[in-house]
Write a structure and sequence with these properties.
By secondary structure, this protein is of the alpha+beta class. The protein is 37% helix and 19% strand. The protein folds into two domains: 98 residues, Helix Hairpins (Orthogonal Bundle), CATH 1.10.287; 302 residues, Bira Bifunctional Protein, Domain 2 (BirA Bifunctional Protein, domain 2), CATH 3.30.930. Helix 3 packs antiparallel against helix 4.
Length: 422
């Protein structure tokens, strides 16, 4: 959500931020609605004051035995005028809210301009892709040959874009999640949370998933939304709260299933686990002081990178351009892992600083000791990591088996190699 005062103070800067996002200017429409709403508020206040004055005159006239008919008629007219002004104010406020709720966060000054992923800027790489003495396979070819990744069974159970993992691959997914959660909670200071996987409208609204992206979510008949990521419940833990400055930053992590409708994904990654309706992810969320959110962003990205380093997976970090960022983000780093079967880097984590954008929607604030006023917190989120994308490609062998990195062996009951029938 955007600060109306900032739009009033510098509408050109607001429109320029929208332009960088590839959107038309909207400040004129917003300010016209704001003026209409405030004019209705002013009329309402004037009518209220006049009604109070006339009501006192009615009382005085009656106490003196005078005719108060005309005054009482004016009170009735003022009541009607107040109702009209209230309706006008509410209608303008609702329209203003609807417009503002659909406008994305404005990009930070140092975010590169660009229309799509081609304009993203690589800032570093870590590790070198392995030189395979054979043609590297994609994850679904490896998993299906092992008999441990079953897309046909998933289609029978639920439809397309689902997968059933069996045996050692199911254990590997569980091991990866535990490995990541342990790193983030024991070493990096994130508090482990087990949140609800279903949320209400207000919670989805708070992180910017509603109203604009309802088609990307799954909804139950009872009106709950299945979470597209644990960012949604974790960030909303501070909704409607006024925190003490001393508790910042708050850091949360969770391992949850994530559910996405993949609206508009027809023809994209139709095979495999890259773009499915249900997947597992370890999420990182920080609630930070505005003065420190930039450094918290760097820290969070480093925490996600550390998981890849310990797994020995080559990756690169890119800064997303203005046209490729998420709706709520003001700056995003994507971490892309090397997938030898595809011969390219693919996103495995997005770490975003949302500034006060989500906090305004959630009414999440903090207060400095001794101060009466409050400020909005800054919210950040990132994947730490998407589990399915870390699974097996980089450690495949010519015989179709998969060797597990040493860091995972304690989490797999000593299993070091996944082969057929394991």
């Amino acid at each position: 959500m955007h600060d109306l005062r900032q739009i009033r103070d510098d509408p050109a800067a607001f429109d320029n931020g929208l332009k960088r996002r590839g959107l038309p200017p909207q400040s004129a429409e917003i300010l016209a609605l704001d003026a209409r709403r405030r004019a209705a508020q002013t009329r309402l206040q004037e009518h209220q004051q006049r009604r109070n004055d006339v009501s006192r005159q009615v009382g005085a006239a009656k106490s003196k035995g005078q005719d108060a008919t005309a005054l009482m008629a004016e009170v009735a007219q003022l009541k009607d005028a107040m109702e009209a002004a209230t309706a006008e104010e509410q209608a303008a406020a609702a329209e203003l809210e609807q417009i503002l709720a659909g406008i994305p966060n404005l990009p930070a000054a140092d975010v590169p301009n660009g229309a799509d992923a081609d304009a993203n800027v690589e800032i570093r790489r870590h590790g070198n892709p392995r030189n395979f003495p054979f043609t590297a396979k994609q994850h679904f070819d490896i998993g299906e040959k092992l008999g441990l990744m079953d897309f046909a069974a998933a289609t029978k159970l639920a439809g397309s874009r689902f997968v059933v993992l069996k045996g050692a691959l199911a254990r590997l997914e569980r091991a990866l999640a535990a490995f990541m959660i342990d790193i983030h909670s024991r070493e990096f200071g994130y508090q482990e949370i087990l949140p609800p996987f279903l949320v209400n409208d207000q919670t989805a609204y708070g992180t910017g998933n509603l109203p604009k992206f309802g088609e990307d979510l799954f909804r139950t008949r009872e009106g709950f939304w299945l979470i597209p990521t644990a960012e949604v419940p974790l960030t909303n833990l501070v909704a409607d709260e006024i925190l003490d400055e001393s508790v910042l930053p708050l850091r949360f992590t969770a391992h949850t299933p994530c559910f996405r409708s993949e609206a508009g994904a027809a023809g994209k990654d139709t095979r495999g686990m890259i773009r499915v309706h249900q997947f597992s992810k370890v999420e990182l969320v920080s609630i930070a002081h505005p003065d420190h959110s930039a450094s918290e962003h760097e820290r969070m990205t480093g925490c996600a990178e550390e998981v890849l380093k310990r797994l020995g997976l080559p990756y690169r970090v890119v800064t997303l351009c203005t046209g490729d960022m998420g709706f709520a983000s003001q700056k995003t780093y994507d971490i892309e892992v090397w997938l030898p079967g595809q011969g390219t880097y693919r996103e495995i984590s997005s770490c975003s600083n949302c500034g006060e954008f989500q906090a305004r929607r959630m009414k999440a604030r903090f207060r400095k000791a001794g101060d009466k006023g409050t400020r909005f917190v800054h919210t950040l989120n990132g994947s730490g990591l998407a589990i399915g994308r870390t699974l097996i490609e980089n450690y495949q062998e010519a015989d179709g088996s998969v060797v597990l990195p040493d860091a995972l062996v304690p989490y797999t009951g000593g299993l070091k190699v996944i082969g057929p029938g394991v």
